[in-house]
Amino acid sequence: MVKVLTDQGEIGISNAVFTTITGAAATNCFGVKGMAYRSMTDGIVHLLRPEAMSKGVKVTYNDDNTVSIELHIIVENGVNIATVCRSIMGEVKYVVSKNTGVEVRDVNVCVDSITM
């Protein structure tokens, strides 16, 4: 949980807020099929349903009150993966900062699969 200090008190922002905002921002980008989750039992990458997008996002809280975000995605066939990832990085950083007021230090995108 990140705590933001204001003149009127303290605001706590939970992990669920960051993962939900991140998942929504990433899946709205062109070329993204959805969030990915690798099963521990069989090792297969699964496309997550919209209500379970947060499983594809990991948030790390840094000592300087910033967050680092790692997300796992599945992209559509035929897109330029590097361009899609750069787009996601910028969009996630902007949307998370705008909605929470917390600075995002890093956004790391892992492409786990490509849909055919």
Word description of this protein:
The chain has 116 residues and is an alpha+beta fold. The protein has one domain: 2-Layer Sandwich (Alpha-Beta Plaits), CATH 3.30.70.1350. Helix content is 28%, strand content 41%. It comes from Vescimonas fastidiosa.
Number of domains: 1
CATH homologous superfamily designation: Cation efflux protein, cytoplasmic domain
CATH C-level label: Alpha Beta
Please state the structural category: alpha+beta
CATH fold description: Alpha-Beta Plaits
Strand residues, percent: 35-45%
- Count of helical segments? 2
Uncertain residue segments: none
Annotate the secondary structure layout.
Layout: E1 2-6, E2 9-13, H1 15-27, E3 32-38, E4 45-47, E5 57-61, E6 67-76, H2 81-100, E7 104-115
Parallel strand pairs: 6-7
Antiparallel strand pairs: 1-2, 3-4, 3-6, 5-6
Helix pairs in contact: 1-2
